[in-house]
Specification:
The chain is an all-alpha fold. It has 3 helices and no strands. InterPro entries: CBO0543-like.
Length: 83
């Protein structure tokens, strides 16, 4: 189970952030940019939920809101770094 967490942390998160940033800067419309954001956000959040469901990671005080804020932070940090 440990390789699944490493793959998530070291490959999937950066890949989804890279896809989001690339899609964000190659499109001009605000609607399409928002769609890119929501698709990448949902993918990040779904991966974390799967990791929790299969007990690969466990948190003592896990909240949906904190997880969502963290995932939005990943995406915004990617935009900030590229800009």
């Amino acid at each position: 189970m440990f390789p699944a967490y490493l793959l998530y942390r070291d490959a999937i998160i950066p890949l989804l952030v890279l896809i989001f940033v690339n899609g964000f800067y190659t499109t001009k419309g605000l609607r399409i940019r928002a769609i890119y954001f929501f698709i990448c956000f949902i993918c990040l959040h779904a991966m974390e939920v799967l990791l929790l469901q299969y007990k690969i990671i466990e948190y003592l005080k896990w909240k949906w809101l904190f997880s969502a804020i963290t995932n939005v932070g990943y995406l915004m940090m990617g935009l900030f770094i590229v800009h």
